[in-house]
Amino acid sequence: MALTTIPTYDAIRAIAVRLVQEHYPVAVAAIIGGSYATGRQTPSSDIDLLLLFEHVDCAWRSTIVAEGRTVELFAHDLATFTYFCKEMDAPGGTVPLAHMVLEGENILAAGDAYARLHALAHAIDAAGPPVLDAENLQRRRYAITTALEDLVDSTHPGEALAVACQLYEALAGLHLRAAGQWSGGGKHLFRCLLAFDAAIAGQLDGALRLVAADLPAGQRAFERVAAAVLAPVGGPLLEGFSLPAPAHWRA
């Protein structure tokens, strides 16, 4: 049955507290993040809960149901948290675990472990994502240029909308990363872009909606916003793009 009411934060917090006390009593921090931490919850929002332990043999993630609410658990110690943020997530331009710590509430008594975790998350966030190297930037420019050609030439509404969705993500991601900003996926991509550049966020949102409602107008709108995003990083790229395969790519 679909959920139709949004529980209060206090009710969600109480569920999380009982869950930790009963099943994870040795946790040294338990942080509610996600939609409930930022006030964007909906009736079906999960409870995102980051559990910090003094030591785990390996980090883990699981989805459970507690008192009728879906809970997404992320379990780490400081070493695994550092590895996942710096080595797994940051190269792709996102650090959702660090942002969960910074935006969320620790529902356990704050001790030294939580203080170190919060300081670490702050340092990771403040450092920003890795700078896009020349090859990565060329890949992105080329992908956007070819996708824009596909969109502008398209006469099939379904195909055009599929390409427009791809182009939205590519343009938003490039605009953020080229400026040294953290990116995201799905709704988080829109939120990151809106916080950084509301004008471009509005143009991209409007262009995507136009493709669905008025394809020629949407095509022109995407041309304009793509030109604005690509101009600071070298413009469109087709002729001259080259990408040699690694030598070990052999049958």
From TrEMBL:
Organism: Janthinobacterium svalbardensis
Alphabetical list of InterPro entries matching this protein: NT_sf, Polymerase_NTP_transf_dom
Annotated Gene3D superfamilies: Beta Polymerase, domain 2
GO molecular function, one term: nucleotidyltransferase activity
A Pfam family the protein falls into: NTP_transf_2
Protein name: Polymerase nucleotidyl transferase domain-containing protein
SUPFAM superfamilies cross-referenced by the UniProt entry: Nucleotidyltransferase
All copies of domain Polymerase nucleotidyl transferase, residue ranges: 20-56
